[in-house]
Amino acid sequence: MQVDEADDAVAWSAFCEALDFGALVPEAYEAYRPAVIEGLIFFLKNLDGDRTADLLADQLLLPEEAGVAERIVAIARHCPALHKMGQVLARDRRLPPEFRALLQRLESLPSSLGTDEARALAEAELGPLQELGIRIDEPPLAEASVAVVIPFSGAAVSGGDGRGVLKLLKPGVEKKLEEELDILQRLGALLDEHCEAYHLPRIAYEETFLDVRDLLAREIQLDHEQTNMRQARAAWAGLTSVVIPEVYPISTPRVTAMQRIDGGKVTETATLPRRARRRMGDLIVRAMIAQPLWSTGEVSLFHADPHAGNLFRTNDGKLAILDWSLVGSLSKQDRIALTQLVLGGFTLDASRARAAIDALSQSRSDTAALDALIAQRMGRLREGEWPGISWVTDLLDDAATSARCHFGANLLMFRKALQTLEGVVADVSPDCRPGRVLTVSLLRMLAAEWGNRAFAFPSSRHFATHLSNLDLTQLWASSPLIGQRQLFGLGSRIPGLRRPAPAQ
């Protein structure tokens, strides 16, 4: 069925006007609601006519009382780019709880394929399965934004219990994703052109979307994912409580054959004791943040899509990290700068924090705005705020929006991964304190490298912690100030300990 482009635009306009998209935008971002609404309408209007007809027909099948959140999720299920965005936002606690619950359905969907259809899809890519020594006797386990996961068994599995899974691209997904990423790039150009009208900060949207587009395009390059998975198994080998699937030799550029992991989403914790939930939360922080941040390599790999559907709690209580199609990397200089930013927060050193942001930024910033922003954030630290993950990510966000700092795609993906992980960890265990876990991990790393520091130059940062002996000396000298600041912050939060107001 072909739909005239003008009719297509009218259909989407009528559909969007009938719904209150703005209700889904958190109050803290109320000023950006017009841009979000117009951006979504632009995306939908520019889809291929056949896809538009299918999406609108799907909307007609929903109950008449279906709300805007349910309708948006139904659209996202058929659009790989929106599906991925929904997975990323599914644990963002700034969104309404009901909307988050709907988005969480996108983390891992049941597949519409039966066993025979799954077998036919696999044979279309691999040829006769019998010749490969495998068989498919079950329907797909799950369906993600771009792929379907099909269980198999047979001699092709080396060792283990003779079971594995095939990850195959969904039919037609390459064309859909290419179309959607092109639309997002054009949307970026539109936002650049109308920044003032939408009251948006100037942050080079088209360039940023282009960077993210390149990363999302890797979602359909399964041979790249196989390489990433092999590298990750080597990098995470020291964490015995972490499982990364083994890639099997029958894999091809379009099919990943790998180890089958039995378990469930890490957020499915209703039957777990409180202590077990906290241990899992701690493990997620150590594996997903501390491991890539504090490593000795010149380049450090990180998982850039850590939504709950990609993090499994295995039946024996380990953390399985799945789906390595979307990864990023941090250079040694990036990790040094991030560590210096945290150190600047601990020591209330505005110049150190400013130098760290300059090192992370790829373009000149608004100097006056950045200085004012850092001064404001240092003031909050003096009042007792802890310079942890939230402090760093909020500072980088504001540096991009108010001080016009442009950060590279890998840093943007790491920042987004941190935000996703904050929500996941909070849902796994409210008792888990990521800042505490990272501090303990850092202290353990410092203890392990202490012997080598006696032979290092004072300014050398050739350590996994990226801290020089000089950095540690400055941190030690500031320790009384840090303790005093936290005590003041505690006093300001407990009524009985507040300092009396000055006499009038």
Main attributes?
504 residues; four-stranded mixed beta sheet; five-stranded antiparallel beta sheet; disordered C terminus
Topology, please?
Blueprint: H1 5-17, H2 33-45, H3 49-61, H4 68-77, H5 80-89, H6 97-103, H7 115-126, H8 129-132, E1 134-135, E2 142-143, E3 147-154, E4 163-169, H9 173-193, H10 205-217, H11 222-235, E5 242-243, E6 255-259, E7 263-265, H12 274-293, E8 299-303, E9 311-314, E10 319-321, E11 327-331, H13 332-346, H14 350-360, H15 367-382, H16 389-402, H17 409-428, H18 434-453, H19 469-477, H20 479-493
Parallel strand pairs: 5-10
Antiparallel strand pairs: 1-3, 2-3, 3-4, 4-6, 7-9, 8-11, 9-10
Helix pairs in contact: 1-2, 1-3, 2-9, 4-5, 9-10, 12-17, 12-18, 13-14, 15-16
Strand content: 5-15%
How many β-strands, per DSSP?
11
Tally of DSSP helical segments: 20
CA-based shape: globular
Let me know the largest β-sheet. Answer: 5 strands, antiparallel
Uncertain runs are 490-504
Description:
A hairpin with an 8-residue loop joins strand 3 and strand 4. This protein starts with a helix and ends in an 11-residue tail after the last helix. The strands form 3 sheets. Strands 1, 2, 3, 4 and 6 form a 5-stranded antiparallel sheet that branches. The chain has a 4-stranded mixed sheet with strand order 5-10-9-7, with helices on one face. Residues 490-504 have low confidence and may be disordered. By secondary structure, it is α+β, with helices and mostly antiparallel strands. It has helices spanning 5-17, 33-45, 49-61, 68-77, 80-89, 97-103, 115-126, 129-132, 173-193, 205-217, 222-235, 274-293, 332-346, 350-360, 367-382, 389-402, 409-428, 434-453, 469-477, 479-493; strands spanning 134-135, 142-143, 147-154, 163-169, 242-243, 255-259, 263-265, 299-303, 311-314, 319-321, 327-331. It is globular, with a radius of gyration of 25 Å.
